[in-house]
């Protein structure tokens, strides 16, 4: 019996083995999490900004009906009432239109899916008007009944995998993914999203579900919809929320055979480095040597919607928009380095960690407004619209598959490297100026530094860098400059 179970799991893992590609359009790389944006606003953002500036994809907040909670905290989106596609972000028709419009301009959509649990006791009214009784585990709009849930218990012991996976996370009613009816409803939900043209899923709370159950579910999800421009046979890209900083009973390695994982060690480590707790020179072996999962199994990020609020993992070392210079440097490094599949965070401003998105009336989400420099206002931060970040998405696209070469450091907190002969970046996190002749790997010519400015015709709105016939250039980053980064690439040649 044991051997049979192992062979079945091996087969299911093989079925899921194609789910490591993000299904990006050729020439594009990098996604952004448009946290709590409305579907109509995202569609316009794809057409007006994400598409033109080379973004490859976007992650959206949960799309299915959630509990309506007093004060409208952001986390109500993680308390499902049903799998109807109606939330404060919009209805199913608006979501379907958004996905279609974004695909049309080369920007793929990844849905944050929540199927570990349903809503907690007391949260019974949904955004689509459905009613539930979490106290008796009754969710008729699915429908789920008490037969579909694990016995009531609380997660109290993170050294016990059974407690973590079979009990309730902060009172949320814990679904039994080993139940065939539960699997059917989850698969129907995911397949409906595939039909609508999504490219993949972020699986919320994956650590709290058994890998063997997830293997069955993933193995039953349809191939991507070719009507939306995906290749025949392409599988959804799956990245699973598995918080693993080491020392716990559950390891991300239990999930990397099924899909990518959200690599929290990347967020924790990059925060420590650019806060000055580790030296930049140590980044020379950035990647699996730091304890990360393999590159194609790692969804990497500087911060996410949880840990920027102190939840999840990383604590005070996590960098957020509230420390902009270090945040831009860390984001630039993530986008310049070839490791992993990077995701940029796009936030709304908050002072209270429960605070929901900006609203027009206390309930309906307000649309972002844009300044003359393309940055956001009206309560939205929009890090993806910061020049130092969107221009580094262009840098990553220009670098393509070129390998990391020409590493240089000063033995402390000044580093530089090239991506083959296509792109070059330098960082200064020391308390004094960087001024050195460095090998850029680039062809001779004059290049626009895409951190301090942008290429505009044959000129640059920021600093220019002259590369000689030997590939070397005089690189200068003063310690008191607004940005501690300089970046040039072949598409920014003047």
UniProtKB/TrEMBL annotation:
<keyword id="KW-0378">Hydrolase</keyword>
<dbReference type="GO" id="GO:0004556">
    <property type="term" value="F:alpha-amylase activity"/>
</dbReference>
<comment type="similarity">
    <text>Belongs to the glycosyl hydrolase 13 family.</text>
</comment>
<dbReference type="Pfam" id="PF00128">
    <property type="entry name" value="Alpha-amylase"/>
</dbReference>
<feature type="signal peptide">
    <location>
        <begin position="1"/>
        <end position="18"/>
    </location>
</feature>
<feature type="domain" description="Glycosyl hydrolase family 13 catalytic">
    <location>
        <begin position="29"/>
        <end position="396"/>
    </location>
</feature>
<keyword id="KW-0479">Metal-binding</keyword>
<dbReference type="GO" id="GO:0046872">
    <property type="term" value="F:metal ion binding"/>
</dbReference>
<dbReference type="GO" id="GO:0005975">
    <property type="term" value="P:carbohydrate metabolic process"/>
</dbReference>
<dbReference type="Pfam" id="PF02806">
    <property type="entry name" value="Alpha-amylase_C"/>
</dbReference>
<keyword id="KW-1015">Disulfide bond</keyword>
<dbReference type="InterPro" id="IPR006046">
    <property type="entry name" value="Alpha_amylase"/>
</dbReference>
<dbReference type="InterPro" id="IPR017853">
    <property type="entry name" value="GH"/>
</dbReference>
<keyword id="KW-0868">Chloride</keyword>
<dbReference type="InterPro" id="IPR013780">
    <property type="entry name" value="Glyco_hydro_b"/>
</dbReference>
<comment type="subunit">
    <text>Monomer.</text>
</comment>
<dbReference type="InterPro" id="IPR031319">
    <property type="entry name" value="A-amylase_C"/>
</dbReference>
<keyword id="KW-0119">Carbohydrate metabolism</keyword>
<keyword id="KW-0326">Glycosidase</keyword>
<feature type="domain" description="Alpha-amylase C-terminal">
    <location>
        <begin position="405"/>
        <end position="493"/>
    </location>
</feature>
<dbReference type="InterPro" id="IPR006047">
    <property type="entry name" value="GH13_cat_dom"/>
</dbReference>
<keyword id="KW-0732">Signal</keyword>
<dbReference type="InterPro" id="IPR006048">
    <property type="entry name" value="A-amylase/branching_C"/>
</dbReference>
<protein>
    <recommendedName>
        <fullName>alpha-amylase</fullName>
        <ecNumber>3.2.1.1</ecNumber>
    </recommendedName>
</protein>
<keyword id="KW-0106">Calcium</keyword>
